[in-house]
Amino acid sequence: MASALDMRFFWYSFWMYLAAFVLFSIYAAVRRRRVGLTATVVFLAAFTFHTAGLAARWVITTHPPFSTMYEYAIAMSWAAALSFIIIMARFRRMALGVVVSPAIVLVLVIASLLPKTASMQLMPALQSYWFYIHVTLAACAEGAFVLAAGAGMVYLVRGKGKRGNEADVMPSRELLEEIISRSLRIGYPLFTIGALFAGAIWAQFAWGSFWSWDPKETGSLVLWLYYTLMLHQNMRGAWRGRTLAVMSIVGLAIAIVSFIGNLFFGGMHAYV
Questions:
Q1: Is residue 271 assigned to a domain?
Q2: With contact defined as beta carbons under 8 Å apart, do 249 and 210 qualify?
């Protein structure tokens, strides 16, 4: 059964992320540093409760909280929040929270629609350290992709001007492009190692085959091919600026479809 403690932590974090989004939006509008700092503090509090919820679920179930789609969504949104905190500490641009925080809220909303039962005893297919490597790296990679999409959205709505207060609040388009590129360079190898290689090894352990064209496997392959193309085009200078921003958003849409695909098509990944 689901634990009241971890569910309470996740509930607190959801509302705090939502409050942080409102505050980040106000900050972008009024350009008051105090508002931005308040939004950042609320976001960090949300992340703290988020982390506590994952830790509580881990303690209660005695295994890492990655065994269901609900737990994966919670872990992926946590990775996205951590990525944003690192980027914010590195570049000192709080306004990126305008898009990153609602993206995290969206993932948590999707998670809230999934079965939340905590498995106290893992099925044999999940009793492998390759499973944990697979899910952990895939969640971290998709967290980086969420950050890239968030930066892409800010890029599209940001004006071209760089002077005055706007430059002090909103990241420049050059910085947003750099954040997207860095997120891709971090997320892509993690996804390659975690979702594909570690996933294939785990599949061999669990089902006796490295590849079975399961809907989730197929979706992961499509996503990997898409980000392979995106990273290649970016590194050769073909996809830059607005094109890169749009493609980062499309990538997140593909990731979401891949994530929820087995709810409609079934398959061996339907651990809900």
A1: no
A2: no
